[in-house]
Design goal:
mainly alpha, 3 helices, 2 strands, about 80% helix
Length: about 150
């Protein structure tokens, strides 16, 4: 009577009376539709899970690449600051050298301006005599204004 399960003898086998054939087909169709809907939902859930996994992987990859580029830029920035500091130190040394040179030139100029024939001949009796001779000879050659 009705539907008999023979799967113990033959796998997936049922024996039914002809009057139960259409209800069994209807039952199988509705069960397969439900199974298909469940599979579709499962596939969508898996796709969402895969999308989330890919999204997380993309974020991690972005963070990794961004961090790498940040470290490179930071190192280059630090190197540039060090080079600027070195340039400033070098320019400061050049400035100090120029100031020292200016002081030496000022002292040399002061000495040159203070240089006179009297200072040159002060401790040199030979030169004193020569200049006296020269002055006397010049005085004789010039006419007097009387």
């Amino acid at each position: 009577g009705g539907i008999v399960d023979k799967s113990h003898r033959y796998e997936k086998m049922y024996v039914i009376r002809p009057q139960f054939f259409v209800p069994l087909i209807t039952l199988l169709v509705s069960t397969s539709r439900k199974s298909l809907d469940i599979r579709k939902q499962l596939f969508e859930a898996q796709q969402q899970s895969i999308d989330i996994t890919h999204f997380e992987e993309d974020i991690e990859e972005f963070k990794k690449k961004f961090g790498y580029n940040y470290r490179l830029a930071s190192n280059k920035f630090r190197d540039a600051i060090k080079e600027i500091d070195k340039s400033i130190e070098h320019l400061q040394k050049i400035k100090d050298a120029l100031i020292g040179s200016e002081n030496n030139l000022r002292l040399a100029n002061d000495k040159a301006e203070g240089l006179t024939i009297r200072k040159l001949t002060y401790k040199n009796p030979t030169m004193q005599a020569k200049f006296k001779e020269f002055r006397a000879q010049r005085a004789l050659e010039q006419p007097s204004e009387d």
